[in-house]
Amino acid sequence: MAFVAGHFGEWMQGRLQPGGPVVLVTLACPAHGVSVERTGDGPLSLEGDPLVVSSAQAAHMLDKVGLPVAGRYVISADLLPGGGAGMSTAALVALARAAGCDDSAALARACLAVEGASDPLMWSTPDRLLWASRRAEILQRLDPVPACEILGGFWGPPQRTDPEDSDFPDIADLVAAWPGADLAAKADLASQSAQRCSSLRGPVDDPMPELGKRLGALGHARAHTGPARALIFAPGTVPEGAERAMTEAGLSDVLRFATGGGA
């Protein structure tokens, strides 16, 4: 059995200066991801609900990492495919690991070939990377994210990433401010990235900024493609009734998890 954790949107995502590459710092979600179990030999066969990758994608992935395009696999995803939680990348990486490949660089190249864009979930500390998602390249190693609690949910319909879509705001100043920032400052940078994305790409009625203020969150984050939304709290400070407030604001599948600080 191979398990690969997903993410829950991004701390920040955008262009590294106008015309530069699309870069991101992923918001790691250690508690939720994709499990893949190889259950037998024979022709390639996939089972699972929801099935987050197609047979053609699975075959392409196995071929790109130099493994036989064969075997029976059961795929189980914890979160919504197309939700901005990295389920497709996690599924591809878990599939390849269940088949016998654990070379992170090779997995990154293969995911890029299959999807055209990739989250950095094949690396052990994906939130410590400035990641060029359309190149599957590490541009910079970053300091650890301080321990925090995330209260998240999905706001709106699923939306798959279009690898040809590079219409994101410039976040070079946010990237420069990230190293050495404490949790409160990182949460503020995440909020700025989310707000720039919403201003450029929509939606205009995202409830998270106001909801975060009302619940005393340090900041908010979003999937810059997809409906995942998150409020960022210092450990132990999520107020009573916060999950209910998220649901009342229109978010679905509300969840809570710890991240950062080695989580």
UniProtKB/TrEMBL annotation:
Superkingdom of the source species: Bacteria
Protein name (database record): Threonine kinase
Lineage: Bacteria, Pseudomonadati, Pseudomonadota, Alphaproteobacteria, Rhodobacterales
